[in-house]
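check these tokens.
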Amino acid sequence: MTLTEMRELLAKRDIQLTKSLGQNFLHDGNQLRRIVTAAALSPADRILEIGPGLGPLTELLVAAAGAVLAIEKDGRLVEFLRERFAATPRLTLLHDDALEYLRRGPHDWQDWKLVANLPYSVASPILVDLALSPRRPERMVTTLQLEVAQRLMAGADDEDYGILTLLVQLDYAPREWFKIPAGCFFPAPEVDSACVVLTRRPVPYLREDQRRTFVRLVKRAFSQRRKMMLKLLKQEWPVAALAAAFAELNISPLERAEKLGLEQFTALTKLLHP
């Protein structure tokens, strides 16, 4: 679907795009093909697409994968998509709020891949919910704001390193990313965009029962970035337990959270988990 076709279709149906829904539709064919290539699709794959919009990415997904589940919140677009893909049995289309749908779970995504141009307003919570799911997708290829992509790809002591980084990287290794110019979208967003590729780690760092402790630890540690992590953690864990854990892992009592890597946070979780 070209930009001209997209404009004409929206005008014909008198559809005014809504900024609050993050409706910036990717129309550039080269970028769409790059996303599909990054997803490494096969006819056996099952794909979750969130926010299909007018379906330019959907069209490529149903051609390359075995099944596609697309979730669209805007009823006007759902009506169009049902007409456009009426003869496409590989596609299941849901009219729903994707974040609410995910949280109604549980869902089994372990044999699925997420491939989506995520609505920017809910991209982070959607990724966190999927990443922390007990049956998380094997790969996530997502287009989102550049600043969010940088957080997902960050490492310890990077400016963008923080809660989002750790909650997603706990189970996903960031593989690659590429920028997508604003002119590739309609309407063009006011922020830069990027596509990131995240692959599920073959061996989890933590058991499922330890994950709540990890999330609690990370959120408390980054609750005030410039404060010493030990002081912040004292609000939730006994001083003696923290002192012993820090000593065992050779972490300075003066250290800030942004200096610790994922492996240190997971090791600390294991020592502090009940």
In short: The mean pLDDT is 95.
